[in-house]
Amino acid sequence: MSKLNKDILFLIFEELQDDSKSLFSCLIVNKLWCETVIPILWRNPWRYNIDYSKKNYLFAIISSYLTDDIKESLMKQLPSVSCQSLLFDYLSFCRSINVNIMKSMISIGSSSEYNQFLLQQEFYNLFMRKCLRFRYLDLRSVKHTIFHLPEFRLCFESLCELKCDTSINSSYFYELANICQYIQKIEIVNLSSESNYGIAKLIEVQKNLKYFEWTEDHFRVNPCKEIFLELEKKADHLNHLKLFFQYFNHFDYTIIQRLLPKLHKIKSLIINEFSFINENLLKRLAYNDLEILNIDYITINEASIIIDNSGGHLKRVSLKPCDFLKCGGDFDEDSLIFIRKIYENCPSIEYLSLAFSPSNDHFVEFEKLLKVCQNLKSLLLISPNIYRHGTEEIISKNGEELLKVLIRSAPNNLRELRFFNDFKFSLDVLENFLEKWRGRPALSILTSNLIYENYNYKNLINKYKNNGVIKTFRYEPSIMNIENMNFII
């Protein structure tokens, strides 16, 4: 790594742009690494999970760019304003403004509302002069307009990503609609029961919208029909759609029913409500480019229909166990069909929630899936409650058979096993499995069964942690965490 040139290092670090911990570690390797990482970190420095209101050095970096006369004026009131020179021209790399974080950082300088107002003016002027072209804008919590600044149009006409909420005055969005027509990604948090026609107008003028998210933090009765009517017109270009409704009954779901069949280029479909879908509509959902399917309140049969109409590119199928198990027909038969649909249509699957009942037919089909899906990295196995009342002997026997299938046929990429409901393994069976897993990538295991908190099990688990067979083994009482494939074990 020490002999790689700057261009190669840059490409490597680009792949780590979401991983602040790794990037910060790279800063201290040597001068070349530091010079290569800094532009990546500062492109959108507000994206990381950091408490910016407590980072005095960030305030010091930005305030150091202020002109001498402004520093002199502010130093009398703001002793934290720095005069120290910088090693890098940090702001020249920046392509992002986050209104809420800017407010938090400005509060470091002074608790006085007037002083904060002065700093806010100077900071925004500074960013407009130094950053030139912004690609990311987070408007949430905006109170102070930045649209009046003379550099605004030039700086924001190339905007690619916008985060906002529905409580923001529509005039802000009218201003953006007049300037920004090539936003690719829009994330909206619904905080208001009032319609926001400004957001609808902004969506209307977009020519390259690919990514749309709508989430709700509170129970609202009006998610603004006009926004979704405009979104429907952009459906043919969307690659990513995420919808999270708190109170769907008050929403005109016919708009979503019209929207879903038009998503011809969709790659990622994430919806927390699917009860409004009927079988006729399901058969019209042909997603040839679909890579991520994450839907709540869906039956196994409905999921099978969507997967059967996908184009063979699915990498992640994450379906919530509690809702996934609500099957209107025969669970055994429907779950067998689902397993077959996975290995017939998803050869590239990496993350999978799998409905599973412990029968001979299921073990056979499950083994076929493991042999076909060689890219599988994380597997959540879900058993229905109807099997929780089996005898200890039957449950233990089924667990032993499951682990035998995994040893025989699990792909080399498999690194995570998640178990929901009764998957119980005796000490001897579990030890035999872990011993035979030796030499493969270390396993992370998540379970909802309290038995593994037992002293004897803990001793066994710690033994195989120490010799590298197990990476992590976690009992998790929270159903929400068990069913969430993004939950880190």
From TrEMBL:
The lineage's top-level taxon is: Eukaryota
- Name the chain's protein: F-box domain-containing protein
Species name for this entry?
Answer: Rhizophagus irregularis (strain DAOM 197198w) (Glomus intraradices)
